[in-house]
Design goal:
Length: 323
Amino acid sequence: MVTNQSGQVPAPEPEETGKASDTLSQLVAKVLDQLSLSAWLPAAALILCTAFIFELGMILDGSSTPLNPADTLREALTSMAAISWGGAGLFIVGIVVVTVISQAFEFEAIRILEGYWGTSLVAEFFAKWRCGKYRKERRKLAAKYKQQQKLAWKGARKKIRKVQTSLILKGQSPRISEDMILAIGAQALGKDSTISLEQIDKEFISRFNWEKWAPGEPLRQRINIDKRLRDFPADERVLPTRLGNVLRSYEDKTNRRPVESFIQKVFDLLPVSLRGEHDEQRSRLDLYCSMVFILVLVGLIAGVRLGVGHPFWGAGALVERRF
């Protein structure tokens, strides 16, 4: 340590103080730059909702008579809006700290919501039960799809035959014979046709759009069912959560193994617009998965804080959620 003649430590030079300040600001900027928007919003939601819950609890504890719910909520929001600058600074610091913590668990949140729950006996039992549930749902949807396909073809066949009969009554030769109708029906229903046809008739059938002859209602229901079926992988690939099944169904369509490293291999080959869209969709996935756990945590905090002295408010906070 360097001292002057009087034995006192000299004050730091202005340049040294400026360097220390610059280093600290650079560190803060670097930390904040590494925090994504998908982590900021859940952290802010957790801090603000928790503060609101405790503010609401204080208002309910301080009232001797039951308050109108609308008035109570308005009073709690008004009280939060009147927070001091010091309190606002604490909120910001709390949001930054929670953001740093929550961002570290974004990937784990996605994996849990996909259905990867570990290998414990309890987790495996629950996962097996959920997978069975989704397999049954998929099979029911597949059966409904076939039923609507049959109804659509039945209506189309009736109309086609009616038109061909009308041509015959007019003395004209029908373009579609009965054997061709049977072959078109087998093709529509996914069955093997045993009808022997000429090559020109086979080409006609391959181009024939029977759906324009079908009634609209079965086609509408079939489209809705088909959209739901797209969210399911094959039976042996089913996962125990809805999100897991949706992601896996589209992962399997890439025909790439392992799919986890697929985007890293092709990312540089993608157009800039597609890269931006991928990053945007991934950020949304991180955000929504994190918000699921934030909402569950907020519900538990509200239930514990309000449930004892104010059961009405506590019961309202504990809402059952499914994923």
